[in-house]
Amino acid sequence: MARNMNPNPNGPNILITGTPGTGKSTLGKELAERASLNYINVGELAQLNNYFDGYDEERQCPILNDDQVVDEMEDTMQQGGNVVDYHGSDLFPERWFDLVIVLRCDNKNLYDRLENRGYSGKKLSDNIECEIMQTLLEEARESYAEEVVVELPSNTPDDLESNLDRIQLWMENWAKQGS
Ligand code: DAT
What we know:
Residues 1-26 are annotated as: Disordered. With 179 residues, the protein is α/β, with parallel strands linked by helices.
């Protein structure tokens, strides 16, 4: 996994991606806290700055202005030590990330989580289909080197704990690179 021979002293940049509801923000916030990293929720950042280009009526969500988002994040990402949470991965420069986590969730769990979030009808079924089709996993595999992309289950609190352990272990090894 040795990509960067001089690890950033502020820590690695880690992208957490996956279908909405798979648990990105739950894992991302907890990881940032435990590993003293900076947490960036890209959806919230876009909302705060209104980095949108209109509204997608069919998918019932605003359309992200990728360039504005990437420009806004560039300096922070260069400093390292960021956990980025977004349901997409192909808008970011490949060089930003040392690790790309793709969270996966069983259909029944995901259905319940999204229903609890108030999703229904097409929006709910589109997201379930997105998970069944492995859309976010494929996107990550097409956008990043094979050894950078790691698929992790996110169904139970035990999964959350083992994912946190696994990423922190990966971070320890990452920090030893080049030393
Ligand atoms: P996302 O940020 O991917 O949209 P989230 O972190 O908001 O997802 O999580 C969606 C819901 O699922 C939320 O109620 C918390 C719950 N959840 C997340 N990870 C979980 C896990 N590993 N086990 C059980 N529930 C989880």
